[in-house]
């Protein structure tokens, strides 16, 4: 029997436990999971009509490599064998490039919680891909978000309970929490200057 390959994607700014629920649900459906990191670098970031804040620098504090390492360590923390997953760039904003990184003959898993999710669904099905929606939930049932985690870090409130242990360790050991705070301050200063 042929190995079933799945593809899943997200921004993972930062990787939290709801992301892990999503990744592990997809992994249960396939033998090998390819995890795509969207907005892999500034060249791929586009303003989204459903959420104009997604493209701002303060909302994209982690590099592709940092997100790669966090995902890898979290998947291993949750006992997924390393040979059963790959991590690749996933340029959802320039979909004509997706097949440079991910196979066309895989099953593409996703969740839909808002208009952006619906747009991505149309994009992927428009490419002729087999897309399976793991869950379709209203926005208020989405649960933890990267925005929420970043805001807690900025406000100096507890956030370790919302992310895998390996992610908390990675962010704090590499002082990435300090970068989140700095970028938020810079954005606030810039906004104040334009008032």
What's the gist of this structure?
The chain has 195 residues and is an alpha/beta fold.
Description:
InterPro entries: Cyt_trans-like (IPR004821), Rossmann-like_a/b/a_fold (IPR014729). The chain has about 200 residues and is of the alpha/beta class. It has one domain: Rossmann fold. The chain is about 40% helix and about 15% strand. The chain contains 6 helices and 5 strands. It has helices at about 15-25, 65-75, 115-125, 145-155, 165-175, 175-195, and strands spanning about 5-10, 30-35, 85-90, 105-110, 130-135. Strands 3-2-1-4-5 form a 5-stranded parallel sheet, with helices on both faces. Helix 2 links the parallel strand 2 and strand 3. It is globular, with a radius of gyration of 17 Å. The mean pLDDT is about 90.
Question: In terms of topology, how is this protein built?
Answer:
Blueprint: E1 5-10, H1 17-27, E2 32-37, H2 64-77, E3 85-89, E4 107-112, H3 115-126, E5 130-136, H4 146-155, H5 165-173, H6 176-193
Number of domains: 1
CATH topology: Rossmann fold
Low-confidence stretches: none
How much of the residues is beta strand, in percent? 15-25%
Shape: globular
Number of helices: 6
Radius of gyration: 17 Å
Distance between the termini: 63 Å
Q: Please report the total strand number as a whole number.
A: 5
Largest sheet: 5 strands, parallel
Order of helices and strands: EHEHEEHEHHH
Spatial strand arrangement across the major sheet: 3-2-1-4-5
Quick one: CATH class? Alpha Beta
Q: How much helix, percentage-wise, in residues?
A: 25-40%
CATH superfamily: HUPs
**What is the mean predicted local confidence, pLDDT?**
91
Structural class: alpha/beta
What is the CATH architecture assignment?
A: 3-Layer(aba) Sandwich
Protein name: Nicotinamide-nucleotide adenylyltransferase
Organism: Sellimonas catena
GO molecular function, one term: nucleotidyltransferase activity
Keywords: Nucleotidyltransferase, Transferase
């Amino acid at each position: 029997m042929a190995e079933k390959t799945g593809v899943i994607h997200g921004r993972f700014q930062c990787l939290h436990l709801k992301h892990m629920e999503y990744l592990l649900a997809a992994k249960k459906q396939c033998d090998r999971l390819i995890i795509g990191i969207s907005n892999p670098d500034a060249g791929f970031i586009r303003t989204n009509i459903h959420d104009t804040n997604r493209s701002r620098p303060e909302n994209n504090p982690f590099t592709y490599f940092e997100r790669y390492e966090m995902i890898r360590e979290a998947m291993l923390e949750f006992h997924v064998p390393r040979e059963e997953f790959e991590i690749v760039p996933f340029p959802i904003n320039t979909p004509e490039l997706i097949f440079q990184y991910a196979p066309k003959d895989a099953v593409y898993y996703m969740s839909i919680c808002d208009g952006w999710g619906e747009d991505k669904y149309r994009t992927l099905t428009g490419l002729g891909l087999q897309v399976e929606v793991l869950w379709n939930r209203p926005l208020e049932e989405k649960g933890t978000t990267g925005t929420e985690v970043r805001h807690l870090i900025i406000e100096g409130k507890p956030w370790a309970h919302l992310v895998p242990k390996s992610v908390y360790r990675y962010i704090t050991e590499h002082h990435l929490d300090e970068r989140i705070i700095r970028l938020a301050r810079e954005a606030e200063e810039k906004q104040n200057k334009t008032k």
